[in-house]
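Sequence, please.
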């Protein structure tokens, strides 16, 4: 009885640890996506600012300086 309970708890622990590892990996992926979107957003803001200020008429020039 106690042995089966311990085995069951061990299996449950393993499942939970696997679930945690998967969720941590998902978080890392999402953080990467967020950083990429932040860079894209910043690029758009710079381009818009550049146009509003009349600094350039070629968006590729602005993008080259960012990259």
């Amino acid at each position: 009885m106690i042995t089966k309970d311990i085995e069951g708890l061990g299996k449950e622990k393993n499942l939970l640890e696997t679930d945690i590892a998967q969720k941590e990996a998902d978080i890392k992926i999402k953080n990467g996506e967020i950083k990429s979107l932040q860079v894209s957003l910043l690029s758009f803001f710079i381009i818009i600012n550049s146009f509003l200020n009349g600094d350039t008429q070629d968006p590729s020039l602005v993008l080259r300086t960012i990259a």
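The mean pLDDT is 86.
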